[in-house]
Design goal:
Layout (H helix, E strand, L loop, with lengths): L1 H36 L24 H63 L5 H10 L29 H20 L7 H20 L6 H19 L12
Length: about 250
């Protein structure tokens, strides 16, 4: 009886050992298949691409998990540094291009200004010489009155026929008083006695006389009107010019 029991017990142990070995063999086969095709049966390629499954790299030990985590941190830092340096390079390139664009804009602006000046200069033609300027200025000056029209020593004036009319009497009197002062200042060689105030008064009287003539221009003879207007302009110009020559009178 004891022998039979021992035989059955050995048979049972052998049975379970066989089942265990068969399970380990099956587990090895499944593990090999998972390594080749992915945990979920999807195909796996050695470059890390997973199709139809999850990421196949799974650590088998805590040490491997720690090593893989540290590797990922180091790789992330490296990628961060690489992207940061690329961003800095891109920023420097953008800044350099902005400087070049600004320089090009400035150069283009001043080139346009120079072209505009050159075009205007070409349109105007050559600048007049000093002699031409003086000739043009002289051409615009009124002709001086003759000694019979204005005596520079006494200040006596011979008025044109239109300015001899009665309605000019008060203006003539004021002008003759100023001409007397002008002649005296010339004779004494003291131009300051006939200064800015007197010049303005001469211009004002001349303008008022011309305005009166203009009001009745349609009723006046053309030749007499032109002679009166020329006389006023020449008188104003001649009297208000700086005195360069004078006659000095010495009293003994």
């Amino acid at each position: 009886m004891n022998t039979e029991n021992r035989r059955q017990k050995r048979t049972s142990i052998g049975y379970w050992i066989g089942i265990g070995l068969a399970g380990l063999l099956l587990l090895g086969v499944l593990s090999t298949s998972a390594s080749a095709n992915g945990p979920l049966g999807g195909p796996y390629y050695g470059n890390g691409v997973v199709v139809g499954g999850v990421y196949p790299y799974q650590a088998s030990t805590p040490g491997e998990s720690f090593a893989r985590g540290m590797a990922d941190v180091i790789r992330a830092r490296g990628e961060f540094n690489l992207l940061t340096s690329e961003a800095a390079i891109n920023w420097q390139e953008a800044r350099a291009r902005a400087i070049v664009n600004a320089q090009d804009y400035t150069d283009a602006y001043f080139k346009m200004r120079k072209a505009n000046r050159d075009y205007r200069r070409a349109e105007r033609g050559p600048r007049p010489t000093q002699e031409e300027i003086e000739r043009f200025a002289s051409a615009g000056k009124p002709l001086p009155l003759s000694p019979s029209e204005l005596d520079e020593l006494t200040g006596r004036v011979k008025w044109p026929i239109l300015l001899s009319a009665n309605h000019f009497s008060s203006l003539r009197a004021e002008m003759e008083d100023l001409l007397d002062q002008w002649a005296v200042s010339r004779s004494l060689g003291q131009p300051d006695r006939f200064g800015a105030e007197q010049h303005l008064a001469v211009r004002s009287l001349s303008d008022r006389m011309e305005e009166i003539l203009q009001q009745d221009v349609r009723n006046l003879p053309t030749q007499d009107y032109a002679a009166a207007k020329r006389f006023l302009r020449s008188l104003e110009y001649q009297v208000t010019q700086p005195q360069t020559l004078g006659v000095s009178v010495a009293f003994q």
